[in-house]
Design goal:
Elements lengths: L5 E5 L3 H25 L15 H29 L14 H15 L18 H26 L5 H4 L4 H5 L2 H33 L6 H4 L1 E5 H14 L1
Antiparallel strand pairs: 1-2
Helix pairs in contact: 1-2, 4-7
Length: 239
């Protein structure tokens, strides 16, 4: 039986982990409050209407989570320029041969569960694999659509200048109805992504045993020594 040696490597820095978990909380809050806003339940009470603020609280949670989500995105974009090579924007750049070779490897081995005749260390990813990187690019675009449409819907009732920066979005699409529909569809894309993402993270953790789940808490993954040496050599060549 082949023996493999693994090294403990810091992959996800603290700002990346904070961004991830803040995003998780914001998206959950946005989805739950968004469902209530789209289809508010009937609340029967004998109290005066002016003393009931249930729906106002739901709206406050939704708007607060939206602002945090927006500024969290900006901080992540900043970290894409100052973070390590696993968080850097170059790690998500899709127009490279290495990216597409890894993409085919992940589809073949991890998703279709096929075997490769030739084992190439370059195809073993340390940070995000290529399928994950491309999905995050798509998710970033969906997040921008959510931000633009969400603030556009909020612009008419807000006195702050930030939401009003997006007031041009509604006239562009012609009506609030279409903007709200796009915003709602974007929410369902997030739900679909969450389901697939959680499944694949646990699947990869079971398949590879490199600390995929725990890495987003502690930052460390376990990487094969020969793959780590290969990655260091590739970085030295770039320098």
């Amino acid at each position: 039986m082949e023996t493999r040696n693994f090294k403990r490597v810091l992959v996800w820095e603290l700002p990346v982990r904070i961004f991830h978990w803040v995003n998780v909380l914001c998206v959950l809050a946005l989805i739950l409050s968004g469902f209530l806003i789209a289809n508010p339940p009937a609340l029967l009470s004998n109290a005066e209407a002016t003393n009931l603020h249930s729906f106002g609280i739901v709206r406050f949670i939704h708007f607060t989570a939206a602002y945090i989500f927006f500024f969290n995105m900006i901080l992540r974009m900043y970290w894409a320029f100052v973070g390590n090579r696993y968080a850097n924007w170059r790690a998500f750049w899709p127009f490279t041969r290495k990216m597409w070779n890894n993409f085919k490897h992940v589809l073949k081995v991890d998703i279709l569960l096929m075997n490769e005749k030739k084992h190439d260390l370059k195809n073993i990813s340390i940070g995000h694999n290529s399928v994950a990187s491309l999905s995050y690019i798509a998710l970033f675009i969906i997040a921008l659509i959510s931000v633009f449409t969400g603030f556009a819907l909020y612009a008419d009732t807000s006195n702050w200048w930030l939401p009003k920066l997006f007031s041009w979005v509604t006239p562009l699409f012609g009506s609030d109805f279409l903007v709200r529909t796009i915003h709602h569809i974007a929410m369902w894309v997030f739900i679909l992504f969450i389901l697939i993402h959680v499944y694949l993270v646990f699947y990869h953790d079971w398949l590879e045993g490199r600390g995929e789940v725990s890495s987003m808490f502690g930052g460390y993954k376990f990487v094969r020594e020969e793959r780590l040496k290969k990655a260091i050599e590739e970085e030295e060549k770039k320098e």
